Amino acid sequence: MRLKISLKAPKNDYLISYNYNHILSAIIYRKIADLDLASQLHASQDFKHFTFSQINIPRRRPSKNGIISRDGRFHFYISSPHDYLIQSMVEGYLEDPEINFKGDRLRVEQVELLKQPDFKKKMKMKTMSPIITRIKREDGKIWDLNPGDLRFYTALQQNLIRKYNSFYDDIYDGDEYVKIVPEMGSVKRKRITIEKNGTQTYHRAYLMYFEVEADERLVKFAYDCGIGEKNSMGFGMVKQVNGA
Fold first, then answer.
1. For the chain, what percentages of helix, strand and coil (3-state, to nearest 5) are there?
2. pTM score
């Protein structure tokens, strides 16, 4: 299931910093009406099975410190294969139609449940938040892979199947073949800063248009849960090209 959350700041020309993943992540946890579920997800060291998009600002102006919403409006998307989680988020927004964004109280103008596309074995998609996937090198350091490295695609496939098995608490019994082919010239690198407990970490992640070919169950799960790592920190959300 997938939500579109539309927000309105208390003033026009509202500044949104370039690195906001940790802000949106905190908002999502706070809006889960089932407090036990929210606490369980937040404390879990396993896959959390949700993802969210970058912020979309229709009327925007760049500045040194971030993007300025000229009319104070912007929106983002949340997606998860966990229907109850999405329903609990909807309930949270209905109970309190405001959010705390950097200390400002923003009004929730709309919460929209989006229709899912018709899933096929081969689909054209684009990223709504950048993809990250990593390996542990021989020297013990964690290394962000890039789409020019074949290990990038192997890691995406293995990660998708592990998440699928974790969510369904079962072993995937279908064809494990997952092919992801970026559209020529569409790959853009983004450097994302994540703040947590006063510590900053930096990641190289990638936006792209691509074609995915896999078992329809895996295609749907990639759409719902995101592809690559750190989905619950706002990485790897995808959409059908010309779709929701």
1. 25, 35, 40
2. 0.93
